[in-house]
Specification:
Number of strands: 13
Shape: globular
Structural class: alpha/beta
Helix content: 40-55%
Distance between the termini: 34 Å
C-alpha cells in the first residue's frame, strides 16, 4: 500500500472511494481495466489518508442531506481497513451529520461497523449491498479468493435483515461456461429469498471484458480452468459484452423468482431507491430532483 492525499472525496453523484486497487483477487474484476488510468500496481493499494477530513468538510457544507455511496470501484472493507479504519471514520461523520448511506462490499468486516449502520438507518436510510455470484463454496474460493465466501456473505444479509437494515444483492458477474447454471442461480436466489433482500441487481447473465481485466481474467482461466480461455476466444473474440449462452433462460428464472417473492429486480428502480434520501424524523423522502440539487 501507499498513501496519497486526495483533493476531493465526493463525486457529483455523492459517491466516494477511500482506496484505489483491491486485494480480493476476484478473477473477473472490471476495476483492473486500463480505462480507469490507474498509475500503480492494482494490488498496491492507494490509500486516501485525508478522506475522513475531506468528507467531514463536504458534509458540513451541504445545504441538504442526501445518500452517500461507497464501494462502486473499490471495496471499502479491504484487509487494510482493519488497521486504518478510514471507512469507519467516514461512517462516523455520515452518522453525525445524519446523511444516508448506500455501501457495497464482499467482506464480512462490515459487521465491525454494525453499530454505525444501525444508527444511520434509525435516522435516515442505510442500504447494504452484498455481491454474491457463486453458490458453490469451492468454486467461490477460486473465483473470489481473497474474501469471505458466499455462505458468509449470506450470513451478513441475514444479520442486516434482523437489524432492519435493507439489503441489495449484486448477482453479477456470472461467468459463461463456469457458473452460468440454473443450479447456481437458484442457490443464490434461495439465499436472497431467505435473507429477504429488497432487490437483486442483475443486468444480464454474463461478464464484461476489456483491456486490463481481460488479460488478468484469461491468465486466471489458464491457471484454474485449462482450455477455457480458448473457448472464450472462439466464442466472443475481443467483445466487451460477454453474455452467457443461457442468458434468456436464466434471466427468466431470476425474474420469475423475484416476482414470486416480492424482490425488486428492476435495476433503475433499485438505483432510484438507493439514491432516495429518507428523513425518518420528518417522515418524508427527499426526491431525486432535490437529491441532485444538494
Amino acid at each position: 500500500m501507499h498513501e496519497m492525499i486526495a483533493k476531493s472525496i465526493l463525486s457529483p453523484q455523492n459517491g466516494m472511494n477511500l482506496y484505489r486497487g483491491c486485494l480480493h483477487g476476484c478473477i473477473y474484476c472490471d476495476a483492473r481495466s486500463t480505462c480507469y488510468q490507474m498509475d500503480h500496481a492494482f494490488e498496491d493499494i492507494a490509500v486516501k489518508m485525508n478522506a475522513p477530513k475531506l468528507l467531514e468538510d463536504a458534509l458540513s457544507r451541504k445545504r441538504k442531506r442526501c445518500m452517500i455511496g461507497t464501494g462502486a470501484m473499490s471495496d471499502p472493507y479491504l484487509p487494510i481497513e482493519k488497521e486504518l479504519k478510514l471507512t469507519r471514520r467516514c461512517l462516523e461523520f455520515i452518522d453525525r451529520y445524519e446523511f444516508g448511506l448506500a455501501i457495497q462490499t464482499k467482506s464480512d468486516l462490515i459487521l465491525r461497523d454494525l453499530d454505525l449502520l444501525k444508527s444511520i438507518n434509525r435516522k435516515t436510510k442505510c442500504v447494504v449491498q452484498i455481491t454474491m455470484t457463486t453458490y458453490d463454496e469451492e468454486l467461490c474460493r477460486i473465483l473470489e479468493p481473497g474474501v469471505c465466501t458466499t455462505k458468509r456473505r449470506f450470513e451478513i444479509l441475514q444479520i442486516m435483515r434482523e437489524e432492519g437494515i435493507p439489503t441489495i444483492c449484486w448477482m453479477t458477474p456470472i461467468l459463461p461456461f463456469i457458473n452460468d447454471t440454473e443450479e447456481n442461480i437458484r442457490g443464490l436466489l434461495d439465499y436472497c429469498r431467505e435473507a429477504k433482500v429488497y432487490g437483486i441487481m442483475l443486468f444480464d447473465i454474463g461478464v464484461t471484458l476489456r483491456e486490463g481485466n481481460r488479460e488478468y481474467f484469461y491468465k486466471q482461466l489458464d491457471k484454474h480452468f485449462p482450455g477455457m480461455k480458448e473457448q472464450y476466444i472462439r466464442t466472443y473474440g475481443n467483445a466487451y459484452e460477454v453474455p452467457s449462452p443461457h442468458n434468456k433462460k436464466l434471466m427468466k428464472v431470476v425474474k420469475d423468482e423475484c416476482a414470486r417473492n416480492g424482490i425488486v429486480c428492476d435495476s433503475m428502480k433499485i438505483f432510484s431507491y438507493m439514491r432516495e434520501f429518507e428523513d425518518k424524523a420528518a417522515g418524508r423522502q427527499i426526491t431525486l430532483e432535490e437529491h441532485f440539487n444538494v
